[in-house]
Design a protein that fits this description.
36% helix, elongated, 5-stranded parallel beta sheet, 8 helices, 239 residues, Methyltransferase, Cobalt-precorrin-4 Transmethylase, Domain 2
Length: 239
C-alpha cells in the first residue's frame, strides 16, 4: 500500500492524527528532503526509516519503490510541506502505482492554496491554482494576463526575490485590481497583505519579502488596462 500523506506547510501542530498514525505504522517513508522530514518525525516520536525521493532521483527510484510495494511493503510518500504531487515531487510514483495496480490511500492535510483563499478575502467560490509562476518573463507575463482576464480568483506561488517585479507588471496592466500576498502561511511571521499593486509595492519596497509567498489576483474583470503586460527579457533567474 502506498500512503500519500499531507504534511504541515509550516506549523508542526497542523499534522493530523491520521497522518501521524500512518507514518508510525509504515515500513518506509519516501521524503523529498529527509533532513526536513526528520524534524517532523522527531516532533511526533516517529521512528520509521527515511529514503530520499525528490525531483533529481525520482526517475531512478520509482521502479525500486514500486517493487517494494509489490512485495508487500507499506510505504508513505511525503514532501517538505503540503501534499505530494501538488507543485512537488510524487506524481511519477503515483502514476507508476496506478499503472501497476498498486493500492493507494491519500491522507489529506493542510493546504497553502485553501489557507490563502480563506484569508485573502477575495472569495473562493471559483478559483484557479497556477502553481509556481514561470521563470521566463514572457511565460510569466502571459500567465498574469490570463489571470487578469479569467474572471475567477487566481493563485500562484512566487519567489520572494521576484515578487516586486511581478507586482510592478500587475501595476502597469491593472492598477486597480485587488490583490493579496499571503506569506509564510501558518508560521510565526505569517501575514496577509491586501490592496492594489501600488500599495503592495510600497509595503514590500520598505520591507523586502522573505519566505514562502502565495500571490492572489482577484477574479473581477480589470477596471482599467493601460496596456498589456510585456516581457522584459527572456529569463529571470531566482537570486
Amino acid at each position: 500500500m502506498l500512503y500519500i500523506v499531507g504534511t504541515p506547510i509550516g506549523h508542526l501542530a497542523d499534522m493530523t492524527f491520521r497522518a501521524v498514525e500512518t507514518l508510525r505504522n509504515v515500513e518506509l517513508i519516501a521524503a523529498e528532503d529527509t533532513r526536513r522530514t526528520a524534524i517532523l518525525l522527531k516532533h511526533y516520536g516517529i521512528v520509521s526509516p527515511l529514503l530520499s525521493y525528490h525531483e533529481h532521483n525520482e526517475a531512478r527510484r520509482t521502479a525500486e519503490l514500486v517493487q517494494k510495494l509489490q512485495n508487500g511493503m507499506r510505504l508513505a510518500l511525503v514532501t517538505d510541506a503540503g501534499m505530494p504531487a501538488i507543485s512537488d515531487p510524487g506524481n511519477r510514483l503515483i502514476r507508476a502505482c496506478i499503472e501497476n495496480e498498486v493500492p493507494m490511500e491519500v491522507i489529506p492535510g493542510v493546504s497553502a492554496v485553501t489557507t490563502a483563499i480563506a484569508g485573502s478575502g477575495l472569495g473562493g467560490e471559483n478559483f484557479y491554482f497556477g502553481g509556481f509562476l514561470p521563470n521566463k518573463s514572457g511565460q510569466r507575463h502571459k500567465a498574469l494576463e490570463r489571470a487578469l482576464e479569467s474572471g475567477v480568483v487566481s493563485l500562484f506561488f512566487e519567489s520572494p526575490h521576484r515578487l516586486l517585479k511581478t507586482l510592478r507588471a500587475l501595476e502597469e496592466a491593472a492598477p486597480s485590481q485587488p490583490l493579496c500576498v499571503a506569506r509564510e502561511l501558518t508560521k510565526k511571521f505569517q501575514e496577509f497583505q491586501r490592496g492594489n499593486a501600488s500599495e503592495l509595492i510600497a509595503h514590500y519596497s520598505a520591507r523586502p519579502p522573505k519566505g514562502e509567498v502565495t500571490l492572489l489576483i482577484a477574479g473581477s474583470a480589470r477596471t482599467r488596462n493601460e496596456k498589456p503586460i510585456t516581457s522584459g527579457g527572456d529569463t529571470d533567474r531566482i537570486a
